[in-house]
Amino acid sequence: MYLRILYIDRIGVVHDITAILAKRRINIVSMEVEKNKIYLECQSVSEQQCKECIAELSCITGIQRINEISAMPSKERAEQLDAILTSVHDGILSVNPDGLIAQYNPAAARILNLPVKKAVGKPLGAALFKNLLIQETLQTGCQYHNREVYIDGGNSYCVVSTIPLKNNDNEVVGVVALIRDTQEVRSLMNNMTASLPMTFADIPYASAVMRQVVNQARRYAASDSTILIRGETGTGKELFARALHSSSTRATAAFVPINCAAIPETLLESELFGYARGAFTGAAKGGKPGMFELANGGTLFLDEVGEVSAHLQVKLLRVLQEKRVRRVGSTKEVAVDVRIIAATNRNLEDMVADKIFREDLYYRLNVIPLLIPPLRERFEDIQLLGELFLRHFAEKLHNPVQGFSAAALQRLQDYNWPGNVRELKNIIERSVNLVDGTLVQPEHIFLGRLSGSQTAPPTVQFEKYQTLEERLAEVEVVILKETLRRFRSSRRMGAVLGLSHTAVLKKLRKYDFSLE
């Protein structure tokens, strides 16, 4: 039987209530008294006994109203608090002045690796008592906000905020600690700040060679092995790295890129591995996580990995082997689960031979090689990419340009593109800024340098005693080879060379060239 009694405050009202219940031999299990309210939890009685008891209690002087209730307020509050603590994603831990755990939710159990049933009502371990800043809060009464600390049991870092609980005399009688898993915080930040994911469907191409590369990359994405992307500058290595991540089982986790060539060597170590509190002058309070920790559970993209110094190559190799990272200035190691995608435009094999790049690190990185061909080896993509960039910049710059003239397109296709796709994009943006009409003309295209044929013409070597016909045949081979590389059709080759397609086929057969 649960009762709520509203009354006008007077001396002896509680005594009168308990006297009636005692006379009726009804045991009081618990009682809660608030201003002008008394809550009673009594033993179970029959419905008739309950009505008679309420009628007699209502006759007490000062009693205004009596209602049956379903539960005591303290129990309702406890159930509500338990539901809140269970639903909260952050860890919540409260202790009394003796260091005994008073409240402890499942999130805290997960982060601290300490089961709830083994924790409530028991002392908090000495290491956690100190590392979670609870001891310091109890002693000083100061509260801490978002301090990064190391948890031995969880073998990881977490972010802690503490609040001292004080009585009416301003004495600290307990502490509440709010605990956040740093990995979850970083995942949330990544989801809020990261750009839209890049997929293989977002990579435009028309050439057979790029189709083969994309198909290879799709297969590699399903693996968790390290990938080394090779290619000249501007070929889109980071684009492929993002697509590999988006197509992997780690797609929902963080993709963390770092350009090893853009950061000075003195800073690169702390950027990769992080640093502990007080590691050096100017270090942030609580330290700072490195890229490996930020990418934990996801993908770390090491762009321009060939620029890493010999000193850092050793540390990088150790992390790749041990799957553990140690912050600069710290003695503690943290386990990390990171997939590595590296990229470089340098010849690592030559660097290994010259003792500039560690051979063991090279083999650690070059598990799955992926070579991105330069734009000059896939001329079929130039028109597709050019039109794609043209539409993009026309919309961005509010220019009504609609396409390229035939001469402008030919100018683009005759260029060697040493800067690859990045250079093409920049040149198209410049062209859109210059054009006045609806078509880009050749005069709107400013190239870095005209290439013509990139193959040097044969020199005259009289020692070979060649006839004119033989010398002309050598030049003809060069012309056919270059034209065939750009235009995989006898009719297109004929249009360029001023020959019929049958004449082109005859010459190709003469020099054992194949269109396939």
Automatic annotation (TrEMBL):
- Which keywords has UniProt assigned to this entry? Activator, Aromatic hydrocarbons catabolism, ATP-binding, DNA-binding, Nucleotide-binding, Transcription, Transcription regulation
Query: Which SMART domains does the record cross-reference, listed alphabetically?
Result: AAA, PAS
Q: What is the lineage of its organism?
A: Bacteria, Bacillati, Bacillota, Negativicutes, Selenomonadales
Q: Residue ranges of the ACT domain?
A: 2-71
Species name for this entry? Pelosinus fermentans B4
Q: What is this protein called?
A: HTH-type transcriptional regulatory protein TyrR
Residues annotated as signal peptide: none
Report if keyword ATP-binding is assigned. Answer: yes
Q: Which GO terms of the molecular function aspect are on file?
A: ATP binding; DNA binding
